[in-house]
């Protein structure tokens, strides 16, 4: 029997971008001591008090069907968090709880696009973006944000391909680049979105990891609250990656029909997970700051290690838990450099090409291991790149 073209074409017949990660995991399974700087997985797990809250809820009986849009207390708390941070009036009617940010991205594109519609997204991008769009039956259209512009997308580049498109997906703070979109960038994006009558899907899962500058949700811009679907998650802010708890923030009518979609897909999120998320959010900003602290610290250490040399040039990390490093001086692609680094030193990083062509010649380093291991690995990476750069120059 033949499977549908939709599922067969999720990766357009190519790689899903995780090849180096899979190689690293195979080496580890064979007993090779690999240092993994690949995925955005915290090296500290979900806090014990959050797990205790989850356990109490489950033992207390919240293991049956939960309210599909999300329990009222959690939706109220998410709405409060968003209202305080964005300044935009937000109530539970603007909130749908989802099975993680990834499910929210999928649902948002189903809400915005019919089969065959064009859906824009900024390159560089998180690796699942094109596959998510294809999974919903839409056609993914990348828009390059160039390194020479600090990976800030230009309105003219978006406008050039926006005709007839139904949605634009952005991510700030950005994975993999670590940049935060400037107010001017967001104003220009909003103007293009309104001109072409598109939906804006704003992936804001790293809004708790701000190292420099200010995160601005595009919902807060004039005329954008009614055409923006904002994505959030407990994964990065509270180290709850495996709990799969995210949300979509949007206009009330959009949330109503998205709840219908949730009824016909996963039928809501487990109640004890939602109770744990509510408990976690009730701990306030201090809890999020504590989860983010190791990445801020490692980011500062990394900038010191990377200073004073030219073989590896960092894209200045304003937010998120990654470094995007320009290794073009080595003469290698990001894919070539990542594979050679893994072979030579058993250090696994993600090729920039996994995140689109705009990041070609770069590698992404996740700051997700203990400080001493991270610093040693980064120093090894720099020394390796310096040797390759000398050979390339010769």
TrEMBL record:
Entry keyword annotation includes Transferase: yes
EC number: 2.6.1.-
Keyword Cell division: no
Cofactor: pyridoxal 5'-phosphate
Residues in Aminotransferase class I/classII large domain copies: 33-368
Source superkingdom: Bacteria
InterPro entries listed in its UniProt record: Aminotransferase_I/II_large, AspAT/PAT-like, NHTrfase_class1_PyrdxlP-BS, PyrdxlP-dep_Trfase, PyrdxlP-dep_Trfase_major
Gene3D superfamilies in alphabetical order: Type I PLP-dependent aspartate aminotransferase-like (Major domain)
Single GO molecular function: L-aspartate:2-oxoglutarate aminotransferase activity
Family: Belongs to the class-I pyridoxal-phosphate-dependent aminotransferase family.
Listed name of the protein: Aminotransferase
Species this protein is from: Thalassovita gelatinovora (Thalassobius gelatinovorus)
Lineage of the species this protein comes from: Bacteria, Pseudomonadati, Pseudomonadota, Alphaproteobacteria, Rhodobacterales
Gene name of this polypeptide: aruH
């Amino acid at each position: 029997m033949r499977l549908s073209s939709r599922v067969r074409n999720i990766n357009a017949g190519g790689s899903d971008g995780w090849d180096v990660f899979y190689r690293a995991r195979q080496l580890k399974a064979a007993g090779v001591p690999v240092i993994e700087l690949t995925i955005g997985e915290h090296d500290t797990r979900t806090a014990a008090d959050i797990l205790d809250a989850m356990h109490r809820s489950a033992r207390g009986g919240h293991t049956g069907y939960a309210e599909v849009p999300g329990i009222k207390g959690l939706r109220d708390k998410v709405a409060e968090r968003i209202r305080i941070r964005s300044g935009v009036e937000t109530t539970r009617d603007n909130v749908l709880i989802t099975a993680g940010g990834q499910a929210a991205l999928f649902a948002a594109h189903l809400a915005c696009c019919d089969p065959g519609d064009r859906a824009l997204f900024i390159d560089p991008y998180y690796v699942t973006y094109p596959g998510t769009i294809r999974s919903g039956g839409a056609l993914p259209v990348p828009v390059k944000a160039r390194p020479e512009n600090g990976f800030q997308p230009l309105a003219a580049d978006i406008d050039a391909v926006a005709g007839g498109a139904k949605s634009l997906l952005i991510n700030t703070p950005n994975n993999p680049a670590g940049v935060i979109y400037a107010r001017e960038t967001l104003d220009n994006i909003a103007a293009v979105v309104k001109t072409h009558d598109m939906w804006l899907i704003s992936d804001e899962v790293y809004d708790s990891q701000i190292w420099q500058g200010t995160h601005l949700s595009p919902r807060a811009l004039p005329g954008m609250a009614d055409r923006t679907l904002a994505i959030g998650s407990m994964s990065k802010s509270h180290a709850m990656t495996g709990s799969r708890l995210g949300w979509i923030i949007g206009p009330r009518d959009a949330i109503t029909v998205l709840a219908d979609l949730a009824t016909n897909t996963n039928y809501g999120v487990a109640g004890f997970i939602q109770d744990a998320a509510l408990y976690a959010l009730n701990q306030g900003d201090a809890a999020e700051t504590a989860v983010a602290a190791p990445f801020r610290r490692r980011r500062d250490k990394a900038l010191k290690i990377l200073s004073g040399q030219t073989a590896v040039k960092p894209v200045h990390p304003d937010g998120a838990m990654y470094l995007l490093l320009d290794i073009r001086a080595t003469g290698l692609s990001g894919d070539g450099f990542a594979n050679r680094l893994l072979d030579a030193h058993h250090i696994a990083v993600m090729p920039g090409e996994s995140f689109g062509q705009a990041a070609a010649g770069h590698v992404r380093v996740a700051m997700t291991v203990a400080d001493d291991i991270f610093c040693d690995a980064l120093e090894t990476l720099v020394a390796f790149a310096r040797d390759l750069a000398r050979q390339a120059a010769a």
